[in-house]
What we know:
The structure holds two protein chains of two kinds. Chain A is an alpha+beta fold.
Amino acid sequence: MTGAARMVTSAERLRRLLALVPYVASRKAVSLAETAATFGMTERELIDDLNLAWCVELKDPDPYCPIDLSYEGGEIVISQAESIERPLRLAADEASALLVALRTLQGVGGGAVGGAGGTSGKRENGTGDAGEPPSPVESVILKLENAAAGVAVNRSQVAVVPPADEHGWAQLLRTALAEGRRVHLRHYVQGRDEVTERDVDPMRLLVAEGRTYLEGWCRRAEGVRLFRLDRVLDLSILDVAAEVPDDAEPVDVDAGLFRPSPDDIVVVLEVSAAARWVAEYYLPESVAEVDGGWLRVTLRTPDTGMVRRLALRLGDDVRVVSPAALVTEVREAATAALALYDLHE
Amino acid sequence: MSKRRTERLLSIVVLLLSTRRYLTAEEIRRAVIGYPDQDEAFKRMFERDKDELRELGIPLEMRPVSPLDDEQGYRIPRQDYELPEIHLTADEAAVLGIAARVWRSAELSGAAAGAVLKLKAAGLAPDREGQGDDGAGQVPGIEPRLTTQEPAFGPLWEAVRDRRPVAFSYRAAGRTDATRRTVEPWGVVNRRGHWYVAGHDRGRDDTRVFKMSRIDGPVKMAGPTGSVTVPAGADVSELVKDWGAMSAGPRRQAQLRVRAGAGHGLRRAGAQVAPDPGHPGWDQVTVEFSGEKWYADYVASFGADVVVVGPPDLRESVIARLKGVLS
Lengths: 345, 327
């Protein structure tokens, strides 16, 4: 959240006030600091809002002030909130955005999230047996669907297909997380066509861009690493407690999973109409139309091996423009591969 | 200025929520501080205030004050205004904290955060996730993220929500020319990180799935709210899954010769691997594949680490790819 410099329209401020007043009114007393944090504002902004609410005055038939409050000693008390002591019902987009998020969480197996901090050893995938009480995700979805009856989008209007967990790695990792244990994994690195083995102390599972990742402290690299679960070849839970260092920084997912680094190599490719998917798939830096439906794609990569593989699979649907060393590398790789066919003919 | 306006709007909400009868514009003007004396200016300002309240989702009811008079009165019915009773446990509150971070699109994450604030304002106990940004890290679990990079997503979300038909230009896979489509959207689906819209294509008179990243230019509304009827039993997730599966085809076997210690991608997913007695330093690998074109692309990407022994069509396709690189 940014500080006082942020512009707030009168509508946004009214929306906030209509939540702020009931928030405080429903609690006997609540601190300025906690309230400001909840609403993502500074204490100064919060005090401005409280003063505004307190100043509201109706003058006819008799003048009166409908809202009475104080915030002495850092504690807010609202003694009178009149007709706005309950929050405004959820708008269609509010209810829909939150419900789609919750259903997505449920779909990826978040049924166990939050329950007793995830330490109860529950391993259900969110569906649960008939006899079991619903998980917090399920029960909150039901409550929200009731509260937003008629305005929120339903499951068939907005749907998120969860990534497949073919080998059950996600399930196994939820257990490891719940029990706080280290895992051993064999992992395929596609860019280098390599298999590596590591011990990892799991931190959390992430689902982004339609794939599931394990985020964990890699003992071999001594750093936080992400592992794509659909490239895990084997995984086992070790009889060792996970030890994630206190200063292990979780990946800032919201800034993008893979950010280009200044050391990356800039690659320019031209792809045909049949290979336009490259521009969708690799999050290029820039894309420009060229003649005949071809696209010129500029991307950054830490490893030209990935681009060499891409060029080999695209055949005559791609032209590598630069760097020159990569143009040579691709031609040599294709020549060497074709030579094998002659040998084995 | 904006502060005055907020004060005035808040006063109107309090006033119209507490009144039992419908109040005329004149009565509202007398009770609320901040309206101008000049009649025309008041009218304009009052119209804008009403629009703003409605945009926030405040149910402003309007009705003639008496059957003999056509002057309008206003009121906010409390049962339509208030969030229904909802009590959340601490565990449920923690889940909400994770859910509020799922959307990475500014608009929907704002909407989700707004919903969470209202739920907290309904009297929820202070919860663990409210303790700071690292709250989620303390709850072992799984955190999904949804991105909406496709410019078409916003208008299509609205069209689906409001059940309105849409028109857009669409460039089908491998085509350079776009065609104009008018679609009754049934739903939007995210699969493998990409958004799709499924519905009835009026021009084709059939069910169609569209990948949003292939929509060219703006999406325009092509009919009024509520004019799309979603057929009972339509399952947009299944439609999108089927659309993805069309390219697959039947499963077949391929015999490969793979350099020892390399081609790891080819050895995955149930491949049978044995050393090749006729070619030291190479393994014989038997794998199942579906979709000859896709698999030939994939095999070619391994370059000189693999040779296709059979079937012949796969072998020819891989050779053609490699020759294409040199052409």
